[in-house]
Amino acid sequence: MNTDNEFHAIQIFAGYLYDAAMVKYLLQCVGIEVFHKDEITGTISIWQSMPGRSGYIILLVLPKDYNEATQILEEFEKKEGH
Questions:
Q1: What is the pTM of this model?
Q2: DSSP string of 14-43?
C-alpha cells in the first residue's frame, strides 16, 4: 500500500455552520489548511452524519497542524469566554 497519496486528517471542531465558518477562517488566517467532513450531509441529512446534532459541521486538519490548531482554538475560546 502506497501511503504517499493517502489523506489523513484529524477532527478539530464540530459545531454549527456559523461557528464552523469562524473557526475555519481563524485557522486559515494563520496558514492552517482546514477541511470539511459531511458539509452537505451535515446540513441536509443530519440524521446520517451526526444523529441528534442538527446542522453540525465537522472540521478536520492535517496531523502536522493539529497541535497548533488546538492551541489557537483554546486561546480563542478563553478570549471569548466559552
A1: 0.71
A2: EEEHHHHHHHHHHHHHTT--EEEESHHHHH
